[in-house]
């Protein structure tokens, strides 16, 4: 560490998340230069340096900035009408007949301009940021043709320019079948693999490729075609897997060395073991579980015993998880899935970074990583998971500022 830094945060308690647990440090300090952490640890062990700014944290807790590693945050309109219909007893078919479901979000997105999408999505992003989120993943998947998928991903990139937050983008063209495919899933996947994905990759619009592997979406064979092309183009993959049934999605994702497999309510031992071997992160999405009143809980104990890394994310989307609070999501992961406080906090920091392939950049408080910090008015880290609908954020720091 050289003799001068930009900022020192001192008199803090740290949850560094370095190593395998929360990495707690009483009387801690962090020093940053050029947006990166140069020291994080016990204040007494910090080398003497000149700092342009010194912040007295008055004993507050500092965690890594939070990371929402699975969202469909860029979308148009909402589906509150559908929610109301369902509360009144309408079935899924009735909702679909009335023009509802995922295709209604596709219609709305196709009608929206890129500017309109940015404008509509900013309040959702701001809600996440207000709770200390410093990195957010955003998927496409409501465009379902080249023009509209590209528009979604450009809107996502622009959100990262409009706000002090890191945005990673994921191409989810294989999310649903567009109406113009007239039920021909193989035709759509062929077009996606031959035309859409290569164009999206050429334009640098996607950092990863995702798919929805389910009876109501795409088969494992179709997903494998998408992943083969992603690998050929040098893009990492992730998968919506085993949410409503076990089609072997987790094992499929692992066989492609996926960054993550997400949802996983119906994953069994074979899938979990494959994920453990591949280092694929299990992303838990309790918001969708809650909202669609799922009964099957993902096999947390299996993941725990096999040492599959677990992340937690909002799945922010208009159909099954209209959720923009990562703090509330942690509470749901603990209450509904019985994840521990430490697992929940690691799940929105260190393990969420891993699910995005960004573990070398963010997710822990360690020298060399971005100075992405959340400073909290709490007495102990468990409060972050325990409260519902209360935001104890004191200050958020993104890349040192
Ligand atoms: N999993 C889901 O539950 C949804 N997408 C996905 O991949 C539903 C998204 C929607 O209904 O808009
Ligand atoms: Fe999702």
Describe what is shown at a glance.
By secondary structure, the chain is α/β, with parallel strands linked by helices.
Description:
- With 401 residues, this protein is an alpha/beta fold.
- The chain is built from 15 helices and 15 strands.
- It has helices spanning 80-87, 92-97, 102-111, 114-129, 146-162, 185-202, 220-232, 249-255, 269-278, 286-291, 300-305, 326-337, 341-347, 350-355, 383-386, and strands at 4-15, 24-33, 36-42, 50-56, 61-64, 66-68, 133-139, 166-174, 208-211, 238-241, 260-263, 281-284, 310-312, 373-376, 393-397.
- Strands 1, 2, 3, 4, 5, 14 and 15 form a seven-stranded mixed beta sheet that branches. Strands 6-7-8-9 form a four-stranded parallel beta sheet.
- Strand 2 (24-33) and strand 3 (36-42) form a beta hairpin.
- Helix 4 crosses helix 5 (146-162), helix 6 (185-202) packs parallel to helix 7 and helix 12 crosses helix 13.
- The mean pLDDT is 97.
Structure keywords:
alpha/beta, binds fe (iii) ion, 401 residues, binds 3-[(4S)-2,5-dioxoimidazolidin-4-yl]propanoic acid, 15 strands, seven-stranded mixed beta sheet, four-stranded parallel beta sheet
């Amino acid at each position: 560490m050289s003799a001068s830094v930009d900022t020192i945060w001192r008199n803090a308690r740290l949850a560094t998340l370095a190593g395998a647990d929360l990495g707690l440090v009483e009387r801690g300090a962090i020093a940053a230069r050029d947006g990166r952490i140069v020291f994080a640890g016990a204040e007494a062990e910090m080398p003497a340096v000149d700092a342009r700014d010194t912040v007295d944290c008055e004993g507050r807790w500092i965690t890594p900035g939070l990371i929402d590693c699975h969202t469909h945050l860029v979308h148009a309109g909402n589906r509150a009408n559908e929610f109301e219909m369902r509360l009144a007893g309408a079935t899924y078919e009735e909702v679909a007949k009335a023009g509802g479901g995922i295709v209604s979000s596709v219609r709305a997105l196709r009608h929206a301009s890129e500017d309109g999408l940015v404008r509509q999505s900013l309040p959702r992003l701001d809600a996440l940021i207000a709770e200390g989120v410093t990195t957010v993943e955003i998927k496409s998947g409501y465009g379902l043709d080249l023009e509209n998928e590209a528009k979604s991903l450009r809107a996502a990139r622009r959100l990262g320019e409009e706000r002090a937050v890191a945005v990673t983008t994921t191409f989810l063209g294989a999310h649903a079948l567009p109406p113009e495919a007239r039920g021909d899933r193989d035709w759509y996947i062929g077009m996606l693999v031959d035309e859409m994905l290569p164009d999206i990759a050429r334009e640098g619009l996607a950092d990863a490729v995702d798919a929805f592997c389910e009876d109501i979406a795409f088969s494992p064979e179709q997903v494998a075609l998408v992943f083969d092309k992603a690998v050929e183009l040098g893009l990492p993959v992730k998968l919506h897997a085993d949410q409503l049934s076990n089609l072997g999605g987790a094992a499929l994702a692992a066989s492609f060395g996926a960054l993550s497999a997400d949802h996983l309510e119906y994953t069994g031992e074979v899938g979990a073991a494959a994920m453990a071997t591949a280092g694929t992160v299990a992303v838990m999405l309790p918001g969708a579980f809650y909202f669609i009143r799922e009964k099957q809980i993902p096999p947390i104990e299996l993941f725990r015993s096999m040492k599959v890394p677990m992340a937690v994310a909002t799945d922010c989307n208009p159909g099954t998880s209209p959720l923009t609070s990562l703090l509330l999501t942690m509470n749901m992961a603990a209450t509904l899935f019985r994840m521990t406080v430490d697992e929940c906090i690691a799940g929105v920091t260190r393990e969420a970074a891993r699910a995005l392939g960004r573990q070398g950049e963010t997710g822990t408080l360690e020298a060399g990583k971005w100075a992405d910090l959340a400073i909290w008015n709490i007495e102990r880290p468990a409060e972050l998971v325990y409260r519902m609908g209360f935001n104890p954020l004191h200050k958020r720091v993104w890349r040192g500022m």
